[in-house]
Amino acid sequence: MASDLPLTFNQAVRGVAEFIEVAIHTILYVRQVYPADLFIRRRKYDTPVFQSRHPGLNEYIAGAVKAITDELALGNVDKVVLVIKNADEKPLERFIFALRNTLQVESYNKDTSVEGAISAASLGQYFRSFLVKLSMIEAQLGQMHLDDLSFAIVIELQDSKAPAASHAKEPPPWIPASTPDTTAGTGDSAELHMVRAVDTGIINLSLAVQESEYKLDLERVAESKGKQKAT
Predict the structure, then answer these.
(1) Per-residue confidence (pLDDT) for residue 31, from 0 to 100
(2) H helix or E strand, kind and range, residue 206
């Protein structure tokens, strides 16, 4: 079966980018960035997932994933960050997809199976385990007790790399990211939680979630107030 053959370079790029898109929708649902009734329950990688039904939101996510796919195919991507922010644009959580192309493939070989790469079937099983972990992330991070949440998708390129993938007739999909939204804007007291990692034999992918220093400070203040009321 084709799904049992080692991945090609192009399959790995498409597979990782598709997973990131599914994961973004799932994160927005489980972290309650939007109301639950904005999402529809679907099935992907043999596990339940949630997808936004809002056309504008879906278009934004799809556009970001297209840019990720283009840069990933060139080996330029270092991280993709989904940052969740409060009404004051203060970062609360960063979901960090760290990516690394482990080999270079000539253009004429990008649809040829790569020796030593995992199969498409195995990759789907790994992605299933990522999504199962994400579905339970609230137990680790706690509920979001804030209104007016927003998010942004940030693509961090490797050092010295500039956005290279563009089409002449299309406007550039890039705008400079606000530093607090990026991993460079992380405070010293932020907490990082590993979710899952996979080495496809072509692209290494790991997912972690970072609770910002600002969010942790808010929780400490709320906990302190709760103890004062209790006494």
Answers:
(1) 95
(2) strand 203-211
Helix (H) or strand (E) holding 100: strand 91-101
Identify whether the C-beta of residue 92 lies closer than 8 Å to the C-beta of residue 86.
yes
Please identify which residue in the block is written with the tokens 């400070």: 217
Lowest mean pLDDT among 93-107, 134-148, 170-184: 170-184
What is the rounded CA–CA span in Å between residue 209 and residue 30?
13
Report the distance separating Cα 69 and Cα 65, nearest Å: 6
Q: Is the pLDDT of residue 172 over 70?
A: no
Q: Which pLDDT does position 229 carry in this prediction?
A: 58
pLDDT at residue 149 greater than cutoff 80: yes
CA distance 148 to 41: 23
Residue found under tokens 């993938």: 165
Run of H or E residues at 215: helix 213-230
Please list the helix, strand and coil fractions of the chain in percent, rounded to the nearest 5, in that order: 40, 25, 30
Helix/strand/coil (H, E, C) string of 60-106? HHHHHHHHHHHHHHCCCEEEEEEEEECCCCCEEEEEEEEEEECCCCC
Type of residue at 193: H
Question: In one letter, which amino acid is 122?
Answer: S
